[in-house]
Design goal:
The protein is α/β, with parallel strands linked by helices and 433 residues long. The protein has 18 helices and 12 strands. The chain is 36% helix and 14% strand. The strands form 2 sheets. It has a 9-stranded mixed β-sheet with strand order 1-2-3-4-5-6-7-8-9. Strands 10-11-12 form a 3-stranded antiparallel β-sheet, with no helix packed on it. It starts with 23 loop residues before the first helix and ends in a 6-residue tail after the last strand. Bound molecules: iron/sulfur cluster (SF4).
């Protein structure tokens, strides 16, 4: 029987002439090794299916959705319309109480926290909250608590104040920069680094301001990569985003455009077919989003990613390492697996900063290193993000990684440990004298 495109007859692997032939005694050794390999993820396999995700919680989410639609007076069609969610964003405790059965103490805490910074949550994101669990990762990311006004932290506005050579621009690196196009988001995340900078008013910056930013880019031939963010780049109306992307297309040295948007997690309905057709006209476009919990990876989010990929947009994820939300190695492993399943590349895990109002989300850097240690080698390299500390004073993202290199000297030998902890020697080429 002809078996390949070259019409070569098929063979069987047990044929000793086959390059894939393995004698039975070797096969037995390989089987023992496979058992040993599997034992290294035994703990994860035991809990894997009990970790809540946006897919396995579907039934409960549907019930919350029905309750929210009843409270807000919406329909099933409204639910699929991002404009309905934006107009009905939940930002008062009276409405939230009807959805989450808040007690008096919780209401008082939320109202007091609101004096220190805005809160708001899209109906969609609110439907992902487990209403009976105050340690629910979705609740913790969206609803303020007393910790926000009790704790003290530092301030680090250096990145914006001293790194903005033109209106709306933040420039920290040699060949790329940011245009901050808006301060609007579908919700105000409780762990947001920019929480102190979110004004009490929603803003989309004027075309004149954006033109000044574009002029700076046009006059800087070394800039090949421009990130539109804010706020959330997808908070812009399609026509305004289309205009900015078109202007960037006209600048020859801009090779790629990136969008910073958390809407895949907070309001995936925003990714409409119309938005995707528009983005398809501005290739290459990358979109960096922020999923922090497997509970955010819902069928709606997956469908939104499908539409973006269909339009040729490349999607990556930047998580923030957050206490009680994703600092558990098994939860983080489930998150990265869910991401690659829906075709989103896990790109970065950021360490949370020591800022006022978000400190309670921080964990030691050692926890982040431990997560990378448990991912690297234990799962596909494609699912292993880079763990990042953002250096103070706008000095940039700095990768942190477990140490594998144990000794490196000029005698041509490297000593290192593998992901599994084996110590190995490696013959290097000698350095030229
Ligand atoms: S979507 Fe991003 S910018 Fe907006 S509040 Fe959340 S973390 Fe901050």
């Amino acid at each position: 029987m002809a078996g390949t495109i070259l019409e070569i007859p098929m063979t069987v692997v047990n044929d000793p002439q086959s390059p894939m032939y393995i004698p039975e005694e070797n096969r037995e050794i390989a089987r023992e090794r496979a058992v040993e390999r599997k034992s290294r993820i035994k703990e994860y396999l035991e809990v894997r299916d009990s970790i809540p995700t946006g897919t396995n919680r579907r039934e409960r989410t549907e019930k919350s959705k029905e309750r929210i639609l009843e409270v807000l007076g919406g329909t099933g069609d409204d639910w699929n319309d991002h404009r309905w969610h934006i107009s009905n964003v939940i930002k008062d405790t009276a409405t939230l109480s009807q959805i989450l059965d808040l007690n008096d103490k919780e209401v008082a805490e939320i109202e007091k926290a609101a004096r220190f910074g805005r809160w708001a949550v899209s109906p969609y994101y609110a439907s992902l909250i487990d209403p009976s669990d105050r340690s629910c990762p979705i609740y913790m990311q969206s609803i303020p608590t007393s910790q926000e006004y009790i704790e003290k932290g530092t301030e680090d506005h250096y990145a914006i104040k001293y790194n903005s050579p033109a209106p709306l621009i933040t420039r920290l690196y040699p060949d790329r920069l940011i245009i901050n196009v808006t301060n609007i988001c579908a919700m105000f995340c409780r762990h947001c680094l920019r929480k102190k900078d979110i004004s009490s008013k929603d803003m989309i910056y004027s075309k004149d301001d954006v033109r000044a930013a574009l002029d700076y880019i046009a006059a800087s031939p070394e800039i090949r990569d421009v990130l539109l963010t804010g706020g959330d780049a997808l908070a812009l109306p399609d026509d305004h985003l289309d205009w900015i992307l078109g202007k960037l297309d006209d600048i020859q040295h801009v090779e790629i455009k990136r969008l910073g948007s958390r809407m895949l997690a907070t309001l995936p309905q925003r990714v409409t077919p119309e938005l995707c057709s528009m983005l398809a006209r501005h290739k290459p476009v990358y979109l960096n989003t922020q999923f922090n919990s497997p509970m955010e990876i819902t069928p709606e989010a997956e469908a939104a990613v499908d539409r973006l990929i269909g339009a040729g947009v490349i999607v990556g994820n930047q998580s923030v390492l957050l206490r009680g939300i994703n600092n558990d190695v098994n939860v983080m492993k489930k998150l990265v697996h869910e991401l690659v399943r829906i075709r989103v590349r896990p790109y970065y895990i950021f360490n949370c900063k020591k800022l006022e109002g978000i400190r309670h989300f921080r964990v030691p850097v050692a926890d982040g290193l431990n997560i990378i240690e448990i991912l690297r080698g234990y799962t596909s390299g494609l699912a292993v993000p880079t763990f990042i500390i953002t250096a103070p004073e706008g000095r940039g993202k700095t990768p942190m990684a477990p140490t594998y290199l144990l000794n490196y000297n000029r005698n041509g030998k490297l000593l290192f440990r593998t992901w599994a902890g084996d110590i190995c020697e490696y013959e290097d080429e000698l350095l030229d004298e």
